[in-house]
């Protein structure tokens, strides 16, 4: 009897394991086909000269040497992307936190307004929105009509990049919702105690709200920094990298090298360099978090 029960239990566990494996199998196949295998292939191609049509030729680190020493556009695109990330990410987080604080108190229309403010984050990376944005900032667009000016926003080096930054800041919906969830976790008793002590609203924000939100700020900072360095659609559709490469994002230049100039090996090398940069920046943010992120378990 005991043996039969053991066999029955073992058979049931095997069936559960099989069912679990079947359910995760689509993810495993998708991960291998669209992530793991392409990553391995791109790493191998980064050491080759490959024009897509022919066979790859091994050239060692020649792509990387050329990238760092003989390609001015590489450094220009990297600098443009770095500037875009450094400016747009803080502005987006500030806007997201500001709007989140407006929606902390629930009213009859709060849910509708949250959805309205979140919509740009859903549509922001689409081709349709990029085309619409290009029309808004055209010489005969709505922005000039409202301001009563005739500025070629997308045709000037000093203004074109800012149109893309404004678009990025406009897509603050996802960060806003995360900030909103973090604000709802701040104990009300802290604000009550601060009010009794005579602390102003501004003082409560800097002494209570911001410190308690640092874990959420940290999460949004990492996520938005990565997204900023991977920006593509804005530059590719709205400005095409112009004028005079002033909005040429790194991913756009990588795309041009890989698919327009048929230098897939060089494009793969560029991809791995950006992966290294993003990994390094993420590591620095994680390293610095020990000095400014509030950790309840460590604080006791």
TrEMBL record:
Topology relative to the lipid bilayer, per the entry, is: Multi-pass membrane protein
Regions that span the bilayer: 21-48, 82-104, 116-133, 160-183, 264-286
The answer to keyword Transport applying to this record is yes
Q: Biological process (GO) annotations?
A: transmembrane transport
Give start and end of each ABC transmembrane type-1 domain.
Answer: 78-285
Q: Which Pfam families match?
A: BPD_transp_1
Q: What is its main location?
A: membrane
Location of the protein in the cell = Cell membrane
The record's annotation in InterPro entries points to:
ABC_transporter_permease, MetI-like, MetI-like_sf
What are the coiled-coil residue ranges?
none
Q: Which of UniProt's keywords are assigned here?
A: Cell membrane, Membrane, Transmembrane, Transmembrane helix, Transport
What GO cellular-component annotations does this UniProt entry give? plasma membrane
Top-level lineage group: Bacteria
The family line of this record is: Belongs to the binding-protein-dependent transport system permease family.
- Protein known as: Sugar ABC transporter permease
Organism, scientific name: Candidatus Gallacutalibacter pullicola
């Amino acid at each position: 009897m005991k043996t039969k029960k053991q066999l029955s239990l073992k058979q049931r566990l095997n069936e559960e394991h099989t069912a679990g494996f079947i359910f995760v199998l689509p993810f495993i196949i998708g991960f291998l086909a669209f992530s793991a295998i392409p990553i391995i292939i791109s790493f191998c191609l980064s050491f080759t000269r490959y024009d897509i049509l022919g066979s790859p030729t091994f050239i060692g680190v020649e792509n990387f040497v050329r990238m760092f020493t003989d390609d001015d556009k590489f450094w220009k695109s990297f600098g443009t992307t770095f500037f875009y990330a450094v400016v747009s990410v803080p502005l987006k987080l500030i806007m997201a936190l500001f709007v989140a604080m407006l929606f902390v108190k629930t009213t009859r229309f709060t849910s509708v307004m949250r959805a309205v403010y979140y919509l740009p984050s859903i549509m922001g990376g689409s081709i349709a929105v990029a085309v619409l944005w290009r029309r808004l900032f055209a010489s005969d667009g709505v922005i000039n009509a409202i301001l009563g000016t005739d500025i070629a926003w997308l045709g000037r080096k000093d203004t074109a990049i800012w149109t893309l930054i404004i678009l990025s800041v406009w897509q603050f919906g996802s960060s806003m919702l995360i900030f909103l969830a973090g604000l709802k976790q701040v104990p009300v008793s802290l604000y009550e105690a601060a009010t009794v002590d005579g602390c102003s609203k501004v003082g409560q924000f800097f002494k209570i709200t911001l410190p308690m939100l640092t874990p959420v700020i940290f999460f949004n900072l990492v996520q938005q920094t990565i997204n900023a360095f991977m920006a593509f659609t804005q530059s590719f559709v709205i400005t095409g990298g112009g004028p005079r490469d002033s909005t040429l994002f790194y991913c756009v230049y990588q795309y041009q090298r890989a698919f327009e100039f048929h230098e897939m090996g060089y494009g793969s090398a560029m991809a791995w360099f950006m992966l290294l940069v993003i990994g390094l920046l993420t590591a620095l943010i994680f390293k610095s978090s020990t000095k400014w992120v509030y950790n309840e378990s460590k604080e006791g």
